[in-house]
Amino acid sequence: MGGWSVFVTGCVWAILLLALFGDSLASAPEFDPYKVLGVSRHASQAEIKKVYKRLAREWHPDKNKSPGAEDMFIKITKSYEILSNEERRANYDRFGQMDENQNFARAPQGFRHFHDSFYFDESFFHFPRTSRDFTESKHLLHYNQYMNEVLPDSFKRPYLIKITSEWCFTCIHIEPVWKDTVLELEPLGVGIGVVDIGYERQLANHLGAHRTPSILGVINGKITFFHYSVVREHLRQFVESLLPQKLVEKVTDNSYLEFLNSWHEENKPRVIMFDVASNIPILYKLTAFAYKDYMRFGYVDMGLTETSQVVQRFNINTYAPTMLLFKENTEKPADVIQARGMKKQIIDEFVSNNRFLLVPRLVNQKLFDELCPVKQFHRRRKYCVLLVTGEGEQFVSVNEAFFDFASSNTKEVLRFAYVYQRKQQTLCDTLLKKDDTTPPQVILLERRSATGRVLYRTVTGGWNGSDDDKHRLHEQLELLQRDPSYLTHDAMLPELNNEFASMFLIQWINTAYDYLAQFYFDLLYSNWREMMPVLSLIFSALFILFGTVIIQAFSDSGEDKPAKQKATDSPKTAESSPGPESTSSRPPKKNFVEVTELTDITYMSNLVRLKPGHINVVLILTDASKQVLLRKFAKEVYSFSGSQTLHYSFLNVDKHSQWMDSLMESAPDARPSDCLDEEEEEEDTTSNKSDYTGHVLALNGHKKYFCLFRPVFTGEEAECSRWSDEDAPTAGPSKASRSRSSSRQKATTLEIHHKLDRLGLWMERLMEGTLPRHYVPAWPGLDTITPQK
Questions:
Q1: Is the full-model pTM beyond 0.85?
Q2: Sign of torsion over alpha carbons 675, 678, 680, 684
Q3: CB within 8 A of 134, min separation 6: which ones?
Q4: Which of 130, 597, 625, 694 ranks highest by number of CB atoms within 10 Å?
């Protein structure tokens, strides 16, 4: 036994040494895209593309029937996918790797050599082959291809896209169902796409696909995920659900006349399909979606008794599907096809050849561009015969005569159309202004550039629909086809108005409904990873909204409480107000503003010895106005009471009248010059003292200056008391004279508390530091505070 264990151990070590230092035991052939395409590592993108096209034509399975052609074509395609993308090419050049979700950090050389040396055949472990077959390779999508081709094309047909990856073993289980679905839906007109999440990470992120396998649909630029079990019937129903609901109208005996006669309002031909099936075939729905801008589609179920009259009316063969196309004449179809096996190619050719009415109305610029294209070559000339007419009954016979003339035309070079002057006023004015004519008129024109340049000529003699008019129009058309220089006028046409723009609101409502339905669908099927950004945005908005409402409610509740004032002569008197205490840096919670009275006791602490940077806001009042002004004062300064640098006091001028006079004398610049002049003029004729009731002072005890608020005029006080510091810069002599004249008119006296109406604005300017400052050499002494006893 011991010898046998030694032998086994030696064999193991021999194998390891050979793996580490030998070239290989059975090395797997390394895939090199440069060798497959036969280009150098420094080849340009143009060279790579040229070689790829040549090899793709040479090894295409449809042309090359050799056994290894399909495998070689897959290698060529995969090599081009790697080298045509700069990022993947750089990854391969640096690390020798091609899958983006692999770790690009280079392993140590010894370990890498060891890994390369041990090659195991996939069949030994029964691993399924992950190489794509040819049918899937032709459906591979790149980001630029999706943005430039698939996205615009999704407005004409729906796309079914599968998200997969190289090592997605779950994708193998759905592969047979996917192939059968592709074989069924692709011939009907459904676009098919495959996105490798390893190679096309950017496209996968754009689509919102973060796991494999995933299946999604794209229509009208909108992405919808498939959430059901991957069954062929479910995928088919999913594609049908992507299409608009009212794309095809079901027609019966009671509704077919209304359906056919509505061509005039929508300016589109009508297509009716007859078949014996309760559900509308998906091929017909896809055709209706592709040509929805040109035609209106209807469906008749010949198996119903409610459709027997319309089937008999048009003599339909019930044994084969039939399509009737109607234009202006609703009694007789303009074209008919009937076949047991309706193919997409047959239907597309049938519909595309009859996209326009015989004489369509120009309702938008897109229709004008397609009906009357710009001249490109001499042999592709298109002349547009345009009738400028109206909508009234007097134009009915004129329009019908033009329709009759156009219906007899068999020349492809001539295109007939008409336009209503009222709805396309600018276009008609441009074409009719040179000849100074009025509708109805027939105009021959040829478009020369996409910017709107045309050559045109008005048919001589006008248009009344008579036989002479028809004969004259026929002669001029023959002359135009022989000599293109017959068109003598040149003009730049404006862009046509979109006559169906009024339907924008309805389209917007339908689009909003589709997005809401998609939101509900994603929420119902727990597509949480895609829905998380939307849900986060919604909850954030709701949180901000309700938070703002709650904060506003709490802040307003304090302001709405009734004011309760208490004025006392104590050193600290609490004056009730709708506001809280003023000694907190945060919005106060107490329901009052603390206002103290300036007396000989509080004078030093509240003014002379006030801390640097602190300001005492002092209200000047009298015994009679004390209660009213204190209540108003507290209400106005409440919003500023949270500042720690503001203090509030009041001064009773009935007790201390000398202090205010002394303060104003020490700062003569505090009074407007016109008030001083007026006082000098009236000094000998009046002995009335200044009324300082309602004045407010902002006193800075440390820097010895104050700011002055003069109350709002109530009709009683002197003229100069109407002024405030915030009005001083803009006040002038003219304003002062108007104030004196209005004072002499003895305006109606207002309530006393209105004196402080503008105090809140003054306080805001005080906090901003924009009020004028009046400096004093020293504060008035105590003798001006306490009266002589």
A1: no
A2: negative
A3: 61, 70, 73, 74
A4: 694
